[in-house]
Amino acid sequence: MKILKIDHLGIAVKSIDAGKNFWTDALGLSYEGSETVVEQKVTTAFFPVGESEVELLESTAPDGPIARYLDKKGEGIQHVAFRVENIEAALSELKEKGIRLIDEQPRIGAGGAKIAFLHPKSTNGVLVELCQRD
Ligand code: ZN
Questions:
Q1: What is the pTM of this model?
Q2: Non-local CB neighbours of 102 within 8 Å, separated by 6+ positions
Q3: ∠ at Cα 120 (119, 124), nearest 5°?
Q4: Residue 110: per-residue pLDDT
Q5: What's the domain range around 116?
Q6: Tens digits of per-residue pLDDT, 78-126?
Q7: How far is the CA of 124 from the centre of ligand 1 (A)?
Q8: Minimal CB count within 10 Å: which of 30, 40, 58, 60?
Q9: Is the pLDDT of residue 32 over 90?
Q10: Cα–Cα distance between 115 and 131 in angstroms, integer?
């Protein structure tokens, strides 16, 4: 398995509109619009930071994963995403190593990336996303 870089940090926010001001006005990152991924009940906005990005995540439904995260923990870093060369190969290698996978098969996330999550029980409590962008 080859990890290429930290692709992005996923940050749960109550509202992208309200939350983006820190990232744009204070830090000077550029806001390039948002995208809703309907089946994941989330709207995402990416802010490039050098080779990586900050991803703000806003729930589109009260029963979505981001809404549940906000209920439990409030706003904050929800996941760390690593870019991999080949996500299918990475998932089967991790499965072989006994790592618990949330997604056995990649799904399509924001920007058309292939993504899959690993279970925090296997990752020191961090929700880890793998992503592959071609
Ligand atoms: Zn992400």
A1: 0.93
A2: 116, 117, 118, 119
A3: 135
A4: 87
A5: 3-132
A6: 999 999 999 999 999 999 999 999 999 999 998 899 999 999 999 999 9
A7: 18
A8: 30
A9: no
A10: 4
- Residue 55 CA to ligand 1 center (angstroms) comes to 6
Instruction: Using the mean position of ligand 1's atoms as its centre, give its distance from the Cα of residue 96 in Å.
Output: 24
Number of domains in the chain: 1
Measured in Å, residue 11 CA sits from the centre of ligand 1 at 8
Whole-angstrom CA distances from 87 to 72, 118, 134 are 30, 12, 11
Question: How far, in Å, is the centroid of ligand 1 from the Cα of 80?
Answer: 7
- CATH number, domain at 105? 3.10.180.10
pLDDT of residue 134 exceeding 90 = no
Q: Is 110 helix (H, G, I), strand (E, B) or coil?
A: helix
